[in-house]
Design a protein that fits this description.
Blueprint (H helix, E strand, L loop, with lengths): L6 E5 L5 E6 L4 E5 L3 E4 L3 E7 L9 H13 L5 E7 L5 E6 L4 E7 L6 E4 L4 E5 L3 E6 L3 H6 L5 E6 L3 E7 L2 E6 L4 E5 L3 E5 L3 E6 L3 H6 L5 E6 L2 E6 L3 H10 L17 H7 L4
């Protein structure tokens, strides 16, 4: 294997974290700010790019960092290397309620395509790049623009998705229509396109938006029940600034109770 072989344990139900066990000199890469805990023998280092074998030399590092900017991520990634003896652990926390999905790329043909911001961490040697969507419909209406993240290699990587994650295995020619925000990841054999909702009433008043993602098998699909954008919209809609109604939850005094507590209406 080109990627480091790591062991892991996923902890929790709705607000999960992944605990990764490293042997001496083994390394895991992660997005900046994702680390929760690490043993004292772990050395943290900030790097350009993803530290994979295709990321050698200054120009390659700059190109790798530039690709990350296109996907909306930071210029930098962080590596965590075990510099001591025996075993050492480092853990990474999910950024919002949902589930962590382990992906063994060696069992997936060496590549998986995922939505932006889904990547959490991976064994060193996994390449984190971009996947350009060639169809104009996908680019303009797919919810992810022309660009999605592409994970390549033969090691373990971990994605995070909101709410409950459902995995569907599509047969050759089988079609699945998915809300544009609910798609998390697809295997490289799945065809990805965008289609208009059927019927004017469905498009205007159905509450599901104008477009759906059309996925055609064969291959595996991962779907999330609560996209972060949907969760944020619901929270904002019930906030005072958006004109949402406040109910004095947990208090019989309601608004009077909030006045006593010093809260503004």
């Amino acid at each position: 294997m080109n990627a480091h072989e790591i062991d892991y344990t996923i902890i929790g139900d709705d607000l999960q974290c992944v605990e990764i066990e490293l042997d001496p000199q083994e390394t895991v890469i992660a997005e900046a700010g994702g680390m929760m805990t690490m043993d004292d023998q772990i050395e943290m280092n900030t790097i350009f790019g993803d530290g994979s074998k295709n990321d050698k030399g200054l120009m390659n590092k700059l190109f790798s960092a530039g690709k990350r900017v296109l996907t909306g991520e930071s210029l930098f990634m962080t590596t965590y290397t075990h510099r001591g003896m025996g075993k050492a652990k480092v853990s990474f926390a999910a950024p919002y309620p949902g589930q962590i999905i382990p992906m063994d790329l060696s069992e997936m043909g060496g590549k998986v395509i995922c939505q932006k911001e889904a990547f959490l961490c991976a064994a060193k040697g996994v390449s984190v790049g971009i996947a350009f969507q060639k169809r104009l419909g996908v680019g303009f209406f797919g919810g992810e623009g022309f660009i999605m993240q592409k994970l390549e290699g033969d090691g373990l990587s971990f994605l995070h998705a909101g709410g409950t994650v459902v995995k569907r295995s599509l047969k050759a020619g089988e079609v699945l229509n998915v809300d544009t925000g609910c798609l998390v990841a697809i295997s490289q054999t799945v065809d990805y396109n965008v289609r208009l909702q059927k019927g004017i009433k469905n498009s205007l008043f159905g509450g599901e938006g104008l477009f759906l993602v059309k996925l055609t098998g064969p291959g595996d699909v991962w779907i999330q029940s609560m996209p972060l954008s949907r969760l944020a919209d619901r929270i904002y809609a019930h906030s005072p600034k958006a004109g949402g109604k406040q109910k004095g939850e947990g208090s019989v005094l309601g608004g009077i109770g909030r006045m006593i507590d010093g809260d503004n209406f």
